[in-house]
Design goal:
With about 325 residues, the protein is an alpha+beta fold. It has helices at about 190-200, 225-235, 255-260, 265-270, 285-295, 305-314; strands at about 20-25, 25-35, 40, 55-60, 65, 70-75, 80-85, 95, 100-105, 115-125, 135-140, 155, 165-170, 180-190, 205. The two termini are about 40 Å apart.
Length: about 325
């Protein structure tokens, strides 16, 4: 029997970006800063906002900061963006990857409990409370929520403390939507979907460890810094950054590629991360793209064809 590791709950020192959204001076729900001047929250947290109504964001242990109007709701998604006039502490966002299995959460209120749990599904179709057809992460909660609330708009954090999702609602119990919500299941919007729906440009860190991360460099590596410098320079200089490494088997082409992938210039130029794909001499393009899609999303390709997967991967 394999035991799931216990996630590292975000402590007060590490939880930089979480806070509370205040509408007309009243606590309306949670929010998370994913940039120095950008806060994301659930759309229903700010649904009562009207032009001229004050909105503020209060980070954990910090004074409230007035939001620059207007509130920006996402079209067809229970999410909204709030712009701030000055820099605040914020939390790095990341795509949820195949290696992300555990999560943690804080609401941004000083005395609220830390929630932890397991990601039980990603890419799950859901008809949300507003009637929108969305794709969500399903989260099993270790704690019994009971009557506890206030988490809508707060962040789903992976084990590296990065924001991978935005909590929106509880799962209703079976039989009837009118029954009380389940005590240990939550739904969250993937942070990449939120950014796309809002048309905002935030840097998403590489997904968690999955099968397609570049391999670690071997012990006792004889570094080929000169060749690595040439490859890096070519990748950075070309509008279509494609470089082929040619040579006989066993000459170190894969090791050199791994060395290039680990260079800081590469992570600075492509902060979303690097996928390591085994292509071979007779590549199965559909299988390769489907594997990459599954690594980034945690799901299978779902019957998508090559054109869709290629476009999705950009």
């Amino acid at each position: 029997m394999t035991m799931e590791p216990t996630p590292r709950a975000p402590d007060r020192a590490a939880w930089h970006g979480g806070g509370r959204v205040l509408v007309a001076g009243r606590d309306a729900g949670a929010g998370v800063a994913v940039g120095p001047r950008l806060v994301l929250t659930a759309g229903h947290v700010v649904r009562n906002w009207q032009p001229g109504m004050p909105v503020a964001f209060r980070a954990l242990d910090e004074p409230a900061v007035d939001v620059v109007p207007p509130v920006r709701p996402a079209e067809g998604l229970d999410a909204a963006a709030l712009d701030l006039p000055g820099d605040v502490a914020w939390q790095q966002a990341a795509r949820a990857g195949a290696g992300d299995r555990r999560w943690a959460n804080r609401t941004g209120a000083p005395n609220d409990p830390v929630l932890t749990g397991t990601i039980t599904a990603t890419g799950l179709p859901l008809l949300d409370a507003a009637g929108n057809q969305v794709t969500v992460m399903q989260l099993h909660v270790d704690q019994d929520l009971g009557g506890f609330g206030g988490y809508s708009g707060s962040a789903v954090l992976n084990e590296r403390g990065q924001v991978t999702g935005l909590l929106i609602e509880e799962k209703p119990q079976r039989l009837s939507e009118r029954r009380p919500p389940a005590s240990n299941v939550l739904f969250a919007l993937p942070i990449a979907d939120v950014a796309s729906a809002l048309g905002i440009d935030i840097v998403l860190a590489a997904p968690g460890p999955g099968p397609l991360r570049p391999p670690g460099l071997p012990h006792g590596l004889v570094s080929r810094d000169g060749l690595a410098d040439q490859v890096v320079a070519a990748l950075l200089a070309r509008p279509d950054p494609v470089v082929a490494l040619a040579g006989m088997g066993g000459f170190g082409k894969s090791v050199l590629a791994g060395q290039v992938a680990s260079r800081p210039e590469i992570s600075s130029r492509w902060p979303g991360g690097v996928l390591w794909l085994q292509v071979g001499q007779q590549p199965d393009l559909a299988a390769i793209l489907a594997t990459a899609y599954a690594d980034l999303t945690g799901d299978g390709a779902g019957g998508h064809g090559v054109p869709y997967l290629a476009d999705w991967l950009g």
